[in-house]
Amino acid sequence: LHMGKTMKEDLTVVAKYINKLYPPEFNVFSIYAELYHNYFASQAKKNAESHLEDKDIYLLLSWVHNFYPKEMRKDHALAMELDKVKLGSLLPSSLSKELENKYLDSEEVTVKNSLSRCLDKEIQRWKEDKEPEKLNGHFQSELLGIFVIQSIYSSQKRAEDISKDVGEELSCRLLKELPAFLRSYRDAFEDFKEKSKKHRYYKPILIANINNCWNFR
Protein backbone atom coordinates (compact mmCIF):
# COMPACT_ATOMS: atom_id res chain seq x y z
CA LEU A 1 0.00 0.00 0.00
CA HIS A 2 2.84 2.37 0.86
CA MET A 3 4.65 1.65 -2.42
CA GLY A 4 1.46 2.03 -4.41
CA LYS A 5 0.55 5.32 -2.75
CA THR A 6 4.08 6.69 -3.16
CA MET A 7 4.28 5.68 -6.81
CA LYS A 8 0.89 7.17 -7.60
CA GLU A 9 1.52 10.47 -5.79
CA ASP A 10 5.05 10.92 -7.16
CA LEU A 11 4.10 10.13 -10.74
CA THR A 12 1.22 12.59 -10.48
CA VAL A 13 3.74 15.29 -9.52
CA VAL A 14 5.97 14.27 -12.44
CA ALA A 15 3.04 14.34 -14.89
CA LYS A 16 1.72 17.71 -13.70
CA TYR A 17 4.88 19.68 -12.97
CA ILE A 18 8.23 18.03 -13.74
CA ASN A 19 7.49 16.62 -17.20
CA LYS A 20 7.02 20.04 -18.80
CA LEU A 21 10.37 21.31 -17.48
CA TYR A 22 12.27 18.98 -19.84
CA PRO A 23 12.34 18.63 -23.64
CA PRO A 24 9.93 15.90 -24.90
CA GLU A 25 12.79 13.73 -26.17
CA PHE A 26 14.02 13.29 -22.60
CA ASN A 27 10.94 11.11 -21.87
CA VAL A 28 11.12 12.15 -18.24
CA PHE A 29 7.77 10.66 -17.24
CA SER A 30 8.60 7.33 -18.90
CA ILE A 31 11.91 7.11 -17.04
CA TYR A 32 10.29 7.80 -13.67
CA ALA A 33 7.42 5.40 -14.40
CA GLU A 34 9.73 2.57 -15.49
CA LEU A 35 11.98 2.99 -12.44
CA TYR A 36 9.04 2.95 -10.04
CA HIS A 37 7.44 0.02 -11.85
CA ASN A 38 10.64 -2.02 -11.89
CA TYR A 39 11.13 -1.53 -8.16
CA PHE A 40 7.48 -2.32 -7.39
CA ALA A 41 7.63 -5.42 -9.62
CA SER A 42 10.86 -6.61 -7.97
CA GLN A 43 9.23 -6.36 -4.53
CA ALA A 44 6.11 -8.16 -5.76
CA LYS A 45 8.25 -10.93 -7.24
CA LYS A 46 10.26 -11.22 -4.02
CA ASN A 47 7.04 -11.59 -2.03
CA ALA A 48 5.57 -14.07 -4.52
CA GLU A 49 8.63 -16.31 -4.23
CA SER A 50 8.53 -16.36 -0.41
CA HIS A 51 6.24 -18.43 1.80
CA LEU A 52 2.83 -16.76 1.76
CA GLU A 53 -0.29 -17.41 3.77
CA ASP A 54 -3.52 -17.83 1.81
CA LYS A 55 -4.73 -14.30 2.62
CA ASP A 56 -1.38 -12.89 1.41
CA ILE A 57 -1.65 -14.76 -1.89
CA TYR A 58 -5.14 -13.32 -2.37
CA LEU A 59 -3.91 -9.80 -1.61
CA LEU A 60 -0.92 -10.07 -3.95
CA LEU A 61 -3.10 -11.40 -6.78
CA SER A 62 -5.53 -8.54 -6.15
CA TRP A 63 -2.67 -6.10 -6.63
CA VAL A 64 -1.48 -7.83 -9.81
CA HIS A 65 -4.91 -8.05 -11.46
CA ASN A 66 -6.88 -5.15 -9.96
CA PHE A 67 -5.34 -2.48 -7.77
CA TYR A 68 -2.23 -1.88 -9.87
CA PRO A 69 -3.58 -2.05 -13.45
CA LYS A 70 -7.08 -0.68 -12.80
CA GLU A 71 -6.96 1.70 -9.85
CA MET A 72 -3.43 3.06 -10.00
CA ARG A 73 -2.63 3.07 -13.69
CA LYS A 74 -6.09 4.13 -14.79
CA ASP A 75 -6.10 7.16 -12.47
CA HIS A 76 -7.31 10.17 -14.47
CA ALA A 77 -4.11 12.11 -13.78
CA LEU A 78 -1.85 9.28 -14.98
CA ALA A 79 -3.71 7.12 -17.47
CA MET A 80 -2.83 9.08 -20.61
CA GLU A 81 0.89 9.19 -19.81
CA LEU A 82 1.08 5.61 -18.54
CA ASP A 83 -0.61 4.26 -21.67
CA LYS A 84 2.41 5.48 -23.62
CA VAL A 85 4.88 3.65 -21.39
CA LYS A 86 3.53 0.05 -21.58
CA LEU A 87 4.78 -1.08 -18.19
CA GLY A 88 3.40 -4.62 -18.20
CA SER A 89 2.31 -6.69 -15.21
CA LEU A 90 3.71 -6.65 -11.69
CA LEU A 91 4.57 -10.36 -11.95
CA PRO A 92 5.76 -12.63 -14.77
CA SER A 93 2.81 -14.60 -16.14
CA SER A 94 4.31 -17.94 -15.01
CA LEU A 95 4.66 -16.76 -11.41
CA SER A 96 1.22 -15.17 -11.45
CA LYS A 97 -0.26 -18.44 -12.72
CA GLU A 98 1.54 -20.38 -10.00
CA LEU A 99 0.01 -18.12 -7.33
CA GLU A 100 -3.42 -18.44 -8.92
CA ASN A 101 -3.20 -22.23 -8.77
CA LYS A 102 -2.15 -22.11 -5.11
CA TYR A 103 -5.07 -19.84 -4.34
CA LEU A 104 -7.54 -22.02 -6.26
CA ASP A 105 -6.30 -25.21 -4.58
CA SER A 106 -6.56 -23.63 -1.15
CA GLU A 107 -10.00 -22.11 -1.75
CA GLU A 108 -11.34 -25.40 -3.11
CA VAL A 109 -10.16 -27.28 0.00
CA THR A 110 -11.53 -24.55 2.29
CA VAL A 111 -14.99 -24.71 0.73
CA LYS A 112 -14.98 -28.52 0.68
CA ASN A 113 -14.09 -28.68 4.38
CA SER A 114 -16.65 -25.99 5.19
CA LEU A 115 -19.43 -27.95 3.48
CA SER A 116 -18.37 -31.14 5.23
CA ARG A 117 -18.47 -29.46 8.67
CA CYS A 118 -21.85 -27.98 7.85
CA LEU A 119 -23.29 -31.39 6.99
CA ASP A 120 -21.82 -32.90 10.16
CA LYS A 121 -23.53 -30.18 12.22
CA GLU A 122 -26.81 -30.79 10.41
CA ILE A 123 -26.67 -34.54 11.03
CA GLN A 124 -26.01 -33.83 14.71
CA ARG A 125 -29.07 -31.57 14.82
CA TRP A 126 -31.24 -34.37 13.43
CA LYS A 127 -30.25 -36.46 16.44
CA GLU A 128 -31.25 -33.79 18.95
CA ASP A 129 -34.70 -33.69 20.52
CA LYS A 130 -35.53 -30.37 18.84
CA GLU A 131 -38.00 -29.27 16.20
CA PRO A 132 -36.38 -27.78 13.06
CA GLU A 133 -36.45 -24.00 12.64
CA LYS A 134 -39.11 -22.32 10.57
CA LEU A 135 -38.44 -19.76 7.85
CA ASN A 136 -41.47 -17.85 6.59
CA GLY A 137 -43.70 -20.37 8.32
CA HIS A 138 -42.06 -23.44 6.78
CA PHE A 139 -39.70 -25.99 8.28
CA GLN A 140 -36.26 -25.44 6.84
CA SER A 141 -32.61 -25.76 7.74
CA GLU A 142 -31.03 -22.33 7.58
CA LEU A 143 -27.65 -23.88 8.46
CA LEU A 144 -27.68 -26.34 5.59
CA GLY A 145 -29.57 -24.65 2.78
CA ILE A 146 -28.46 -21.06 3.22
CA PHE A 147 -24.96 -21.61 4.61
CA VAL A 148 -23.91 -23.99 1.83
CA ILE A 149 -25.16 -21.70 -0.94
CA GLN A 150 -23.58 -18.63 0.65
CA SER A 151 -20.25 -20.42 1.12
CA ILE A 152 -20.08 -21.31 -2.56
CA TYR A 153 -21.35 -17.93 -3.76
CA SER A 154 -19.01 -15.85 -1.58
CA SER A 155 -16.04 -17.99 -2.63
CA GLN A 156 -16.89 -17.49 -6.30
CA LYS A 157 -17.32 -13.74 -5.75
CA ARG A 158 -13.90 -13.39 -4.10
CA ALA A 159 -12.28 -15.24 -7.00
CA GLU A 160 -14.08 -13.07 -9.57
CA ASP A 161 -12.77 -10.00 -7.75
CA ILE A 162 -9.25 -11.16 -8.61
CA SER A 163 -10.00 -11.73 -12.29
CA LYS A 164 -12.67 -13.16 -14.56
CA ASP A 165 -10.48 -16.16 -15.47
CA VAL A 166 -9.76 -17.04 -11.83
CA GLY A 167 -13.47 -16.74 -11.06
CA GLU A 168 -14.41 -19.07 -13.91
CA GLU A 169 -11.80 -21.64 -12.91
CA LEU A 170 -12.98 -21.72 -9.31
CA SER A 171 -16.61 -21.98 -10.43
CA CYS A 172 -15.72 -25.08 -12.47
CA ARG A 173 -14.00 -26.63 -9.47
CA LEU A 174 -16.82 -25.86 -7.05
CA LEU A 175 -19.42 -27.18 -9.46
CA LYS A 176 -17.68 -30.53 -9.02
CA GLU A 177 -17.64 -30.23 -5.24
CA LEU A 178 -21.34 -29.38 -4.95
CA PRO A 179 -22.64 -32.69 -6.43
CA ALA A 180 -20.23 -34.59 -4.18
CA PHE A 181 -21.61 -32.72 -1.17
CA LEU A 182 -25.21 -33.32 -2.28
CA ARG A 183 -24.54 -37.04 -2.61
CA SER A 184 -23.18 -37.13 0.94
CA TYR A 185 -26.21 -35.15 2.12
CA ARG A 186 -28.60 -37.53 0.35
CA ASP A 187 -26.89 -40.62 1.80
CA ALA A 188 -26.98 -39.17 5.33
CA PHE A 189 -30.63 -38.21 4.94
CA GLU A 190 -31.60 -41.65 3.61
CA ASP A 191 -29.84 -43.19 6.61
CA PHE A 192 -31.79 -40.92 8.97
CA LYS A 193 -35.09 -41.82 7.25
CA GLU A 194 -34.46 -45.52 7.68
CA LYS A 195 -33.12 -45.54 11.22
CA SER A 196 -34.95 -42.70 12.99
CA LYS A 197 -38.63 -43.30 12.33
CA LYS A 198 -39.37 -43.14 16.05
CA HIS A 199 -37.72 -39.72 16.41
CA ARG A 200 -40.09 -37.26 18.07
CA TYR A 201 -39.71 -34.76 15.25
CA TYR A 202 -39.26 -37.24 12.42
CA LYS A 203 -41.88 -35.70 10.13
CA PRO A 204 -40.81 -32.02 10.60
CA ILE A 205 -37.19 -33.00 9.91
CA LEU A 206 -38.27 -34.74 6.69
CA ILE A 207 -40.24 -31.67 5.64
CA ALA A 208 -37.33 -29.35 6.44
CA ASN A 209 -34.97 -31.37 4.27
CA ILE A 210 -37.44 -31.60 1.40
CA ASN A 211 -37.83 -27.81 1.55
CA ASN A 212 -34.04 -27.47 1.34
CA CYS A 213 -34.12 -29.11 -2.10
CA TRP A 214 -35.71 -26.03 -3.66
CA ASN A 215 -32.84 -23.82 -2.45
CA PHE A 216 -30.25 -26.22 -3.79
CA ARG A 217 -31.91 -26.30 -7.21
Task: Name a few traits of the molecule.
8 helices, elongated, TNAP2 protein
Description:
The chain has 217 residues and is an all-alpha fold. It folds into two domains: 91 residues, no CATH class; 120 residues, no CATH class. It contains eight helices and two strands. It has a two-stranded antiparallel sheet with strand order 1-2. Helix 5 runs antiparallel to helix 6 and helix 6 runs parallel beside helix 8. The two termini are 42 Å apart.
Shape: elongated
Biggest sheet, spatial arrangement of strands:
1-2
Radius of gyration: 26 Å
Q: Let me know the largest β-sheet.
A: 2 strands, antiparallel
Query: End-to-end span in angstroms?
Result: 42 Å
Secondary-structure-based class equals mainly alpha
Low-confidence stretches: none
For this structure, the quaternary state is single chain
Q: Helical region count?
A: 8
User: How many beta-strand runs?
Assistant: 2
* Helix share bin: over 70%
Integer average pLDDT = 91
Give the domain tally: 2
Helix and strand pattern: HHHHHEEHHH
- Beta-strand residue fraction: under 5%
Record the SSE blueprint.
Elements: H1 2-18, H2 28-48, H3 54-72, H4 79-85, H5 93-127, E1 134-135, E2 138-139, H6 142-162, H7 164-195, H8 202-216
Antiparallel strand pairs: 1-2
Helix pairs in contact: 1-2, 2-4, 3-5, 5-6, 5-7, 6-7, 6-8
